[in-house]
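Summary of Year 1 activities. Much of the first year was spent building the evaluation harness for sequence design. The harness presents a backbone, in tokenized form, and records the residue chosen at every position. We chose the following record to illustrate the format because it has been used consistently in internal testing since the harness was completed.
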């Protein structure tokens, strides 16, 4: 299961719905993200989800490319300390 880091408020700003700048409340870092990353973070704001639940809420197709892209995005958000994994 994936979830937002506790205390993360998802304060961000966008220009033309293409480039998003998000402030990480926990680290004080600012990150440039794309719309897909913001969609994942917004979905996780409502509570923990596994990759299948995320794919469904984001209306991704069930193809291997979508699953791979979601896994890469989750890995990047984890590296940025915006999300973490939790036991089921």
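For this record, the design step produced the sequence shown next.
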């Amino acid at each position: 299961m994936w979830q937002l880091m506790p205390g993360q408020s998802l304060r961000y700003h966008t220009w033309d719905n293409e480039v998003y700048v998000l402030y990480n409340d926990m680290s004080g870092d600012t990150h440039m993200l794309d719309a897909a990353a913001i969609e994942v973070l917004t979905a996780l704001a409502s509570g923990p989800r596994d990759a299948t639940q995320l794919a469904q809420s984001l209306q991704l197709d069930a193809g291997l490319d979508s699953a791979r892209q979601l896994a890469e995005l989750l890995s990047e958000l984890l590296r940025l300390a915006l999300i973490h994994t939790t036991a089921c």
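Residues 2-85 form a domain with the Outer Surface Protein A; domain 3 fold (CATH 3.90.930.60). Quantitative recovery figures across the full test set are reported in Table 2.
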